[in-house]
Write a structure and sequence with these properties.
Layout lengths: L8 H10 L1 H10 L10 H10 L5 H15 L4 H6 L2 H5 L5 H15 L13 H8 L7 H10 L12 H11 L6 H11 L3 H12 L21
Helix pairs in contact: 1-2, 2-12, 3-7, 3-9, 8-9, 10-12
Length: about 220
């Protein structure tokens, strides 16, 4: 049974009051079903796989892994040879990152379930101690697995693209992004879900006003 990010009308009404253009987007798109992966390890590997590749490529690689392996567990990832992991379409670096995370969990060097007790900032700090994991990967885990309510990632190019499309900006620098982050708080995750939808073409007439266009969606 599929699980989706849970949000309510309180969040929707808040965002609509805070941003008229986003309100128009919400009205046109309606309820968005954003899939979540409830198992933290599986979700973390999913985020690592998705680093610096397009959404389509991410989906393709992930489907291959699920179809062949069934489950994505620390033991399976630990025991899988690097070459076999790379054959799914994963780079050597990503494969080593995945193996490293699995090893740390098996060796009890990382209690991944303890992340649930931490603040957003603490989760980012803890996960950034891992090889190949940075702020974006931690933020995607918090949104797509932990369902934290206020995640709006500056490292996610699709979110930046969505902001450009909604607000007709040519660029989104850090200062401008911070203004939107504060505007959407404490429901940044719901705003992210709608910005992803816009970036993915949910409203055909909306275009990207950005100077540089890219299909890559995210960083580390």
């Amino acid at each position: 049974m599929d699980t989706y990010f849970q949000y309510d009308e309180i969040a929707i009404e808040y965002l609509k009051k805070r941003d008229k253009r986003l309100a128009e987007v919400i009205e046109k798109i309606g309820k968005v079903k954003r899939p979540v992966i409830t198992d933290l390890f599986t979700a973390l590997i999913h985020s690592i796989v998705g680093q610096q590749i397009s959404t389509k490529a991410h989906q393709t690689v992930w489907a291959r892994m699920q179809n062949e392996l069934g489950e994505i567990t620390p033991l399976i990832m630990h025991d899988l040879p690097l070459d076999d992991l790379q054959r799914f379409g994963i780079t050597f670096k990503k494969a080593t990152y995945i193996k490293s995370v699995a090893q740390k969990i098996i060796a009890n060097e990382l209690d991944i379930n303890a992340l649930h007790t931490m603040s957003d900032e603490e989760v980012c700090a803890k996960l950034s101690e891992l090889d190949g994991v940075g702020a974006w990967t931690a933020e995607m885990l918090m949104l797509h697995s932990m369902q934290r309510p206020n995640i709006l990632s500056y490292g996610d190019l699709a979110i930046l693209r969505g902001l450009r499309m909604v607000h007709h900006h040519r660029t989104i620098d850090k200062a401008r992004f911070e203004r939107y982050r504060k505007r959407y708080a404490p429901y940044g995750s719901v705003a992210s879900i709608y910005l992803w939808a816009v970036s993915g073409g949910a409203i055909e007439e909306m275009k990207d006003y950005g100077i540089q266009k890219t299909k890559i969606k995210s960083g580390k």
